[in-house]
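From: lab user (bench 3)
To: helpdesk
Subject: output format question, protein + heme C

Hello, I'm new to running complex predictions and I'm not sure whether the block I got back is the full result or only part of it. Here's what I submitted:
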Amino acid sequence: MFRKIIKIAGMILGIVVVVIAGYLTKAYISVNGRRNTNYAVDVQQVPISSDSAILALGGRLAKAKGCTECHGADLGGKVFVDDPALGHLIASNLTKGKGGLPADYSTTDWVRALKHAVNRQGKPLLFMPSHEFTFLTEQDMGAIISYCAQLAPVDRGFPEGNSLGPIGYVLTDLGQLPLLPAEMIDHQRPLVKEVKAEISVAYGKYLSTSCQGCHRENMKGGEPLAPGFPPVMDISSSGRPGKWSDEQFIATLRTGKTPEGHTLKPDEMPWTMAKEFTDLELKALHLYLNSL
Ligand code: HEC
Ligand code: HEC
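Helpdesk reply: Thanks, we reran it on our side. This is the complete output you should expect:
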């Protein structure tokens, strides 16, 4: 009897192992196929300038849009995921130092990365959130590129390269990990030239692209983004920020403390990025959120 149970348990375990191995193989093949897809995109040009006001705008946007969070404060590159199950992912060195971008990295290459999430070889960039940057105006994208292209060289290399772990493959296969932003982008859509910087719903909507990834398109928040993270709060008119004055909204995003006394952790709610928005931008953002 006992031996029979062991035998049946062994058979079940064997079947489970075969099924898991089969699924893993399927996930590896399918995700690797997607990583090797070639994207032949028509790259639009954006205005590049060495004007100090444009460079200052580009520098501020590099912080507000999170470039410095992933690529490091000096944009000299950073390992931003290092987990044997998930993977080892490097946000590239964006300077022209050793280990950085090649000396002939052109404006076209920059736009291909920022608007399309595609590299020079036509392959999709991993995890680079260009599905958000693709909505930048020509003007703002131009300012960011103008700023990044003149950075002081930083010598920092990552010879180990990117790799994806088993959980990384599975989550990507299940559509739970935005590994390939190139798949989420409309590559034909031309860039918008400019959105007027004023306290308007339209300008607030433009700025809210930075919040959408977490707070969702309707800004009503939802499920946590990853296990161990708090649920994402509703920041539309039906949420708490709907009851705040503009001053309270601005103070919350500058200090991480809400009027109700709740402290927002920068790794859960990145107010350290949002604090780079100007007063005018935050007022436009608040106006837009309250219109939802
Ligand atoms: C969520 C993290 C994250 C953010 C935010 C981010 N990047 Fe990236 N970026 C990456 C990763 C990861 C790669 C490398 C992708 C790869 O090697 O496949 C990358 C690659 C790039 C590349 C391509 C380099 C090459 O080898 O061709 C450029 C250019 C770039 N990022 C610029 C920016 C700029 C400018 C910003 C801000 C507007 C930004 N990134 C924001 C993660 C990020
Ligand atoms: C990386 C994900 C992420 C991004 C990007 C993000 N948020 Fe959040 N946000 C959160 C999470 C998670 C919470 C809840 C944090 C908590 O419970 O402590 C939150 C909370 C908030 C709160 C507090 C709401 C309350 O009821 O107290 C405000 C305000 C807010 N976010 C505004 C914004 C704005 C504006 C943007 C865009 C500029 C933005 N967030 C971008 C994840 C994000």
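A quick orientation on your result: The longest strand covers residues 78-83. Let us know if anything else is unclear.
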